[in-house]
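Lab meeting minutes (informal)
Scribe: AK
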Amino acid sequence: MADSAAGLKLAQCGMASSTTRDLTQGPIGKTLLVFSLPILAGNVLQSLNGSINAIWVGRFLGEAAITATANANNVLFALIGLVFGIGMAATILVAQSMGARDLPQAKRVIGTSATLFGAASVGIAALGWWFSAQILIWLGTPAEAQPLAEAYLRVIFLAIPLLYLFAFVSAVMRGAGDTRTPFYFLLLVVLLDTALNPLFIFGWGPVPRMGISGSAMATLVAHCIGFAALLGWLRWRSHPLWIGSAELRLFAPDTRILRALIVKGLPMGAQMVMISMAMLMLMGMVNSHGVQLSSAYGASLQLWTYVQMPAMAIGAACSSMAAQNVGARLWARVDATARAGVLCNVLMTGTLILIAVAADRYVLSLFLPDGSPALETARHLNHIAIGSFLFFGVTFVLSGVVRSTGAVVAPLVILGIALWGVRLPVAQWLQPLWGVDAIWWSFPISAACAMLMSMGYYRWGKWRQAHMLEPAEDQLATPAEVGALPPSPVCCQSQAPEPAPELAPGLAPAR
């Protein structure tokens, strides 16, 4: 009866929609799996798109070109990290609002975060375009790959606002329980990008031959069309989260929400930057050993993208699902979500690791020229490092659940210790003893440390007492309201919440 009443209240609040999903009801495991499948399929699409583009670049433009794209993409990932954190914070706030049956609050979050997110991404694109050459010099990009990397990176920077606004809207929709719609439009983007890559790289008819920059141009054009189509669809369907012309005032920043986006988003974005900077440091170490090792590492990165996909998909689904249940204050379901996510990741990631090791000769050869000596080097380093993604999956799920309440500092500290206190020192200081293999062994060693620290914090940390938004002036904050958002005045009162214990228990069994 409680679930039925909650659904009725949701409909009365104007939030019922075939494009959104209530993640506070139903069996945990099945709901999580169904919700995560479109995310996983989207990750597959993006990886296939990146891999197909890498095949065009690596096999037809050479090892220097694939080294250039690997360096440029690492730079790109680092520079958008802080903006991406704002998007993650917005997603959690929207999910909490939907769980609390507060649609007006969700739309206020979207308006404020869209303004901040858009402005920041444009600023980063401008700075990145201007300083592309200097950034690549700081990275130590091999001289033969430098001009190619700069040409590719400059065009990619022009695409950043479209690329990440598309990702932002998709993430917000996932927070509202809709994973299917972002998948369909991502499919459109991938099909366009895949078709346009050879056209812009090699040229045809009136289209000039652009070389490696043509690969980046295909990404820009595809995301421009896909983002416009997504916005048009949201307006045509009158999506519950669409901000129409009569609500343009919602794009004026709300100071309370803006504060939460910055205070909570910056630490989450800093995690992305921290990962990127560590990868850049490792890339610098690899680059110092020459193009052969760099191209082998670049090919391995393409393979690892697929191996980490279940962790990324299920972790993202767990974060949205946990945030909705935090908003509804259903703490037992939060624990059950974490347990189900960990088990799914172990099974799926473990299976992919076995397949990747068995078939790595064939897969890695796709990203390297025929007869390249880098193939065996890539296979060797892959056998050492690939197991780290099993530990990564557990960490990703637990960190996502913890962040769903607004506890963002502890995951940042854990990641900092694992990367800068373990991975980089192992990779650098053990090279005199282990040679270049020290770089590859640093992956599983640091990932295992991160997993153990995350499990410890989940079990004994006080992350349940965190919150995303500061209480409004007319609210009295109580321990039972930790993580909850204020109910909308137009909505009915929600069902009685489950009390939140002071300390987080272990992973509770799904019910």
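Next up, CB showed the second protein from the same session:
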Amino acid sequence: MSFPKTGKFLQDGDEVSFAAMVSVVLRGTLGDRPASIKQVARWTGAGERTVKNWFSGTSAPRGHHFRGLVRNCPEMLDAFLTSIGRRDHLAFARVEEARERLRQALTVLDFDAPDENPRE
């Protein structure tokens, strides 16, 4: 059984190319420098030539590479959720991110806090 070819578009009113969305977010967030391409390659494990194609919008990342992009570039998650009409999920993602940052801050504070009951 073969699956029908559905194209590379996400629907949200008008058609927006997934590859173009990735390209816009990458260039807007990181710029179009060789260092940016190398950084994204480290994030995703993809080759630099592949990442250059993402930056140019000629191809889009596959699932496991896209997951690496979202993990390291919050703007990518925002753009993706907006493109599929799920902006409501942005609030949940931001709350979870705030919780994680709060956990990290509390860990640092607990580690650096002086002993409240010093022994004499």
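CB comment: Residues 1-16 have pLDDT under 50 and may be disordered.
No objections, moving on.
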